[in-house]
Amino acid sequence: QVQLVESGGGLVQTGGSLRLSCAASGRTFSRHDMGWFRQAPGKEREFVAAISWGGASTYYAESVKGRFTISRDNAKNTGYLQMNSLQPEDTAAYYCAAGDRAVAFSRNYGHPGAYDYWGQGTQVTVSS
């Protein structure tokens, strides 16, 4: 199994930036697709970004496209989410997720069911 731990959340003012990290255990992280989701109070968990196991393909929610960048460093067993131009509506708990490689990832990356492992989450708060 894969254990995931997020870090890098915090309080930032509107227009600021944060870089979230997702540290994975084990030696098989490179064989897993990865995604980021977020959940605000009273709302369902929402897809943010995803990256394929080799890093060749990336996907973004329309609400963050052009502002957020997902990346991974398989040698360090770590995934990242760079968040720029943050807005109050970005305030949420952010969760890292990993899924076993599947041929359908390019079609299912935005669905929580595509992922097998989840981190505990890190809080991002954007003040106005």
Describe this structure in words.
This protein is mainly β and 128 residues long. The chain is built from one helix and eleven strands. The strands form two sheets. Strands 2, 4, 5, 6, 9, 10 and 11 form a seven-stranded mixed sheet that branches. The protein has a four-stranded antiparallel sheet with strand order 1-3-8-7, with no helix packed on it. The model has no long low-confidence stretch (mean pLDDT 94).
Compose a concise summary of this entry.
By secondary structure, the chain is mostly beta strands.
SS-based class: mainly beta
Helix content: under 10%
% residues in beta strands: over 45%
User: What is the CA-atom radius of gyration, in angstroms?
Assistant: 14 Å
Stretches where pLDDT is under 50 for at least 5 consecutive residues are none
Largest sheet: 7 strands, mixed
Termini separation (Å)? 40 Å
List keywords for this structure.
single chain, 128 residues, mainly beta, seven-stranded mixed β-sheet, four-stranded antiparallel β-sheet, 1 helix, 48% strand, globular
Write the layout of secondary structure elements.
Elements: E1 4-7, E2 10-13, E3 18-24, E4 32-39, E5 46-51, E6 58-60, E7 68-73, E8 78-83, E9 92-100, H1 105-108, E10 117-118, E11 122-127
Parallel strand pairs: 2-11
Antiparallel strand pairs: 1-3, 3-8, 4-5, 4-9, 5-6, 7-8, 9-10, 9-11
